[in-house]
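EI: anyone free to look at a 127-residue chain?
SC: sure, send it
EI:
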Amino acid sequence: MDILLDTHAVWWFFVDDERLPKSATEIICKPENKKYVSIVSLWEVAIKMSIGKLHFDGGIERFIEAIEENSFLLLEVDPEHIKAVSNLPLIHRDPFDRMLVAQAMIENISIMTIDTNILKYDITSIW
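SC: here you go
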């Protein structure tokens, strides 16, 4: 199974947050599943760290290392993703989440999220 983790899903996984359901953790931990983290999520985390909203021991460098150590694949942004964002209905106003929706659509992968606005789009979700 191919899964794009929403920013909060990967964050909660790394900080062992109880808001991440056990079923989601099990899906993430299955080695046969391909887990993607968007470069957009790294950007979002970096911004939130820089303004003091998030803290991760070792900073963004350690966060990126954790992604690599857990065999998560980085999903880059390409022009097709950007085109898809421009055609999305304005259900969600957060630009990071809109890009995640577009990436999930274009790459035809499920998104792991609890965000009810993301779930309003025509995508497959896991939680």
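EI: Strands lie at 2-5, 34-38, 73-75, 110-112, 125-126.
SC: 👍
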